[in-house]
Amino acid sequence: MTTRVLISFFCDDRPGVIEQLSALISDHEGNWLDSQLSRLGGRFAGVLQAQIPQAQHEPLNSALNDLSGVGITASLTDAGDASEASLGTQRLTLMGPDRPGIVRELTRALRSAGFNVRSMKTAVETAPMSGEPLFRAEASIELHEGSRLDELEWKLDAMAETMTLEIDLIPD
Predict the structure, then answer these.
(1) Contact (CB, 8 A) for 74 and 64
(2) Which UniProt key words apply to this protein (predicted)?
(3) Fewest beta carbons less than 10 Å away: which of 18, 81, 110, 116?
């Protein structure tokens, strides 16, 4: 019997990290499925989903723990069951002057209107004309039974006005 697992890791950014992780998965009769990997600052971090035989769960977990000897901090957990069925997705984009609290206010609005973040990517860039820090976010959000799109739109409009942001919500 096989099981799906999640492996999260971080380490100093250097060539060969993904090769080391993929070799461990292969050595434990596993299959690399999905992943989100990124360089953040001078570190490399990610989370991946793999399918492995149930009998390889503990040996793979042990092998991942041994990676600390080469500077990779990794952990293994069961992937769990998929959550309730989504009624659809919306793509949210956000851009404006960087300031503390943007992600907190955005996720607060999403949660209170009954939406779930499926994926989100954020970055701080330099604005072309002014050179000021510019915050960008793009997210895929799921609609579920009880999600209130009108409430979310109202909250995002208020947030955009208060924080001088441009926020767009586009059906997928």
Answers:
(1) yes
(2) Cytoplasm, Repressor, Transcription
(3) 81
